[in-house]
Amino acid sequence: MTGPSIAERVREVPPSGIRRFFELAEEMDDVISLGVGEPDFTAPWRAREKAIESLELGQTSYTANRGMKALREAIASHVEKWDLTYDPDDEILVTAGASEALDLTFRALVDPGDVVAVVQPSYVSYIPDVMFAGGTALPVPTRAEDDFVLTPEALADAGADRADMLVLCYPNNPTGATMTRDELARVAEFACEHDLTVISDEIYADLTYTRSHTSIASFDGMRDRTIVYNGFSKAYAMTGLRLGYALGPSNVIGAMNRIHQYTMLSAPTTPQYAAIEALESCDESVEEMRTQYDRRRKFVLSRFEDMGIDCFEATGAFYVFPECPWEDASAFAEALLEAEKVAMVPGSAFGECGAGHLRVSYATGLSDLRTAMDRLERFLD
Amino acid sequence: MDARAELIDLLRENARYSVEDLARLSGLEESAVEETIAALERDGVLCGYQAVVDWRRVESESVRAFVELNVALDRETSYEDIARRLAKFDEIQSLRLVSGDYDFALDVEADSMGAVSRFVSERVAPVPEVTQTVTHYIMESYKERGIEFDDGYDDDRLSVTP
């Protein structure tokens, strides 16, 4: 008996490139991890209180498949600040994390053989999700020289003009790059010209530091060809509550909901109550967290500069993406971990063009950040 | 946020940040940090730097009490006059004029309950304008100046995540 055979499309997806590194970090005690893509803050108390209250009131049943109407309305109001207008009735879908929304989109839109261009360095789930849906991923590298900003030239060089879809994520995980309105306008023009559906992961939209966020869906001609993702994990520090949402044309959201209603039925109920409260009354908490991240960002960039490590000025999310002092960033990350117990993720985990870089998360308290930087400095000496 | 507001905010968060830290966290030059702090001190904006202590963790016999004070004013005496007089006592850690059922709120600290009682009865109550005192001994402190005591936080996030 050899046991059940695993589906080919699942076998095709390689294991995470940082698995070995992850296992190494898990085995060690007292590691200061700058490898965590998760806020070190907890969700705003008011939101947590609302979650507790909802349980006390026994609000534990399914919600509408698309998510609670009140939450969809609150989301519609929230995204207006980015010039996005969506109808809560049929253009918003509440999901179990933005990850579910992303998976649903590919399953709803990708036919076998469809080509999905993925801007890299990228969050590690995009390409596997494309593969699970039967599509073919086409990496579109961005370069440190361009501050990891996507350009029409990079898209053309990668052959994205022949793709069916384009996945981008700004503010970006892992680089911390953001895009200006003008830079995005050029990408929007390319998408319209080549009839690309754009999948825009904007989960870090509330975490920008030098300018406010622009959504690619806000450009002329883009709304009907873009699906926007966001959620409560990053800005509201609600990672464990698993709540996200997708915004898009009603036919796409409807198709996603068709899959969602047979798999998830509805996003978990308690976090939806917390999320309504978060959107309606926790702006100050978000601003406080953003202020803290910004300070840490400046701190880390300044320490890298003093150590002579090149790092472009990351302006969003909670990552910086410095050049690695060694040619082999994986070897460097392992050596640093073993010698000084500081974990940084090798950039190659996020695509080939990330090689030679390190992803450093500053979603960690200042005292640990300072110690980690001191240890890095000692390691380099 | 301008430089003054940013530095006030940072120092309220942690008054022990070094000039170097403050410069890195704010993006200001170290010289600008030093100059701004000097100006804030000179202008009386920054009046002092103190630690927030969880006394339960320290072997200490000191006793703290919160005292409500009612006063009767006359044409010759203002709240300010009374406050100026009371503020001189070392036992009074903070002194505030408040709205509501009483006039002043005092934080009093002394070596023992007896010492607090004596101080209130022998020093505060006899002040001619004082008409009533109500003393509340502090039995336990859970939060002070925005800092929650015993707020143990174990970081159980995955060491490395995508």
TrEMBL record, chain B:
Keywords recorded for this protein, A-Z: DNA-binding, Transcription, Transcription regulation
Xref: SMART domains: HTH_ASNC
Top-level division of the source organism's lineage: Archaea
Protein name: Lrp/AsnC family transcriptional regulator
Organism: Halocatena marina
SUPFAM superfamilies given in the database record: Dimeric alpha+beta barrel, Winged helix' DNA-binding domain
Keyword hit for Transcription: yes
Transmembrane segments: none
Domain HTH asnC-type: 1-74
InterPro entries per the UniProt record, alphabetical: AsnC-type_HTH_dom (IPR000485), Dimeric_a/b-barrel (IPR011008), Tscrpt_reg_AsnC-like (IPR019888), Tscrpt_reg_AsnC/Lrp_C (IPR019887), WH-like_DNA-bd_sf (IPR036388), WH_DNA-bd_sf (IPR036390)
GO function terms (MF aspect): DNA binding
Keyword Transcription regulation in annotation: yes
